[in-house]
Amino acid sequence: VNILLNSSLVIHKVRSGDEGWYSCVAIKGESAEVPQKYSAKLRIAHLGDLTRDSFEPPISTDWTRVVPERTEFEVTCVPPPSDPAAKVWWLDPRGHTVSDSGPVRVDETRLIIKAVRPEEDAGNYTCVAENMAATKTASFELVVTTPPSILLGPLSITVEESQTVTLNCKYQAMPPPVTTIQWFRDGKLVVPEPNRVAIHENGSLTISDIMLEDRGNYTCQINTIGFHPAKSKPAVVHVKEKLKFSPRPVNKKLELGSVAKVYCKASSSTPPVIKWVKWGKVPEGEEQRMLDRLPKNVQDINGTLHFNKVQVEDKGTYTCVATSSQGFINATIDIDVIVTPKFSVFPRNPTEAYEGYPIMIHCIAEGDPKPTIKWDRNSNFSGFDPNRFHVLENGTLLVQEVHMSDGGKYGCTAGNSGGLKREEVTLIVKSAEGYRPVEGPGPIEVSDGESSMMTKTFIITLSVATAYMVLVIGLMIWCRYRRKRRKQAYLTANGAEGTDT
């Protein structure tokens, strides 16, 4: 801020804080006259920005306004905050100032188009606000729409299930996004699905891997903003059911001696004929051959195999063949004959053991395939000390040295491809104080009345060996006795001959 020699006030680079009243006061020397004072107010000229909210009604985020042809259009440009007041006017798409008369005119800051024309009136309109501080502009695009029309609608079609079908809909309308295309099936909107149902920009509908549920009446609809939708006549889509298994037969495991059924179901546009065949066993290296008939205990009733008491011979390869006017299909499966696990020796429940001594808990199962035996303690399969717990080949659990903490519930599970069977036994561990183990052939103590397979085997083996030894000794005594008698008879005969001589 500077004061010149002529008392003029100069403000360089005026800022908003400089705004306000300024007074020039004149005082004449030592005169008693009242000083002369002149005041002036400094105002800072400014002009705010024009935004989307400067238009009433507001403009969309993409700075466009869509209106149908031959309709009246009005929009007001609200002047931004300014000082001094800004002057506002409109520019048409050709950059000319819009006057206050004619089909396109202004009324103060309002733009008015009496009847919008697609070619003449479409384009960018600009609102201009200006004062001594600046000039600000904001533009929007006026899109004039025309009514849509369908030139050629979809045609009815018949397709086979799982094929691809395309329905065409040729139309005339404004380009997207002003115009959208929709398809309806039996009055319900068709929703696009990735890799299966697609609606293209040219209006066509493509359905890949068509299903029976896709059949129906299809209609295409063209929607343009500002007009009623244009709808095509319905086209009927017929879907012929494909010959197929429903469901496809799968490999089966049948219990020996049971009554069982194996299903084979198929469907098509015409009822199919379903038949089962069995393949016979052939020497290794040769191809299988189809048997003339099924096993005697097996019947094929309308595509269902009925097994009356499953036999081992029923095991093998079977093929289901479905035939219709559309051709034939087949599915081959393997049928296995199994015996689910059955316990031949059950663990004794409860089982008592003495601390510090060994114990055997027997659990033997039979089945085909041979079942495997798994033991668990309190439902924990990994809670065994491998140094003390051993599972023998026949499934028996051997505890070489029982601890008090070994008490609890033990589970024996026998399993094969036919299923699982489980038995539980409670092991009660007693103190060994005052206990005297029963003398036996081995180090394993067997409690009174317990059917120990190991003890039985040892007793049988010992009995056979004893019997064999008794037989051998008896034969030796008998042979020695017989030789002695022969020798005596020989000597007696020779003595008699010597006397005669």
From TrEMBL:
Keyword terms of this UniProt record: Immunoglobulin domain, Membrane, Transmembrane, Transmembrane helix
Coiled-coil intervals, chain numbering: none
Pfam families per the UniProt record, alphabetical: Ig_3 (PF13927)
GO biological process: axon guidance; dendrite self-avoidance; homophilic cell adhesion via plasma membrane adhesion molecules; regulation of canonical Wnt signaling pathway
GO molecular-function terms, A-Z: cell-cell adhesion mediator activity
Keyword hit for GTP-binding: no
Ranges annotated as spanning the membrane: 458-478
Stretches assigned to the Ig-like domain: 57-139, 148-238, 247-336, 341-426
One annotated Gene Ontology cellular component of this protein: plasma membrane
Entry keyword Transmembrane: yes
Name of the protein in question: Ig-like domain-containing protein
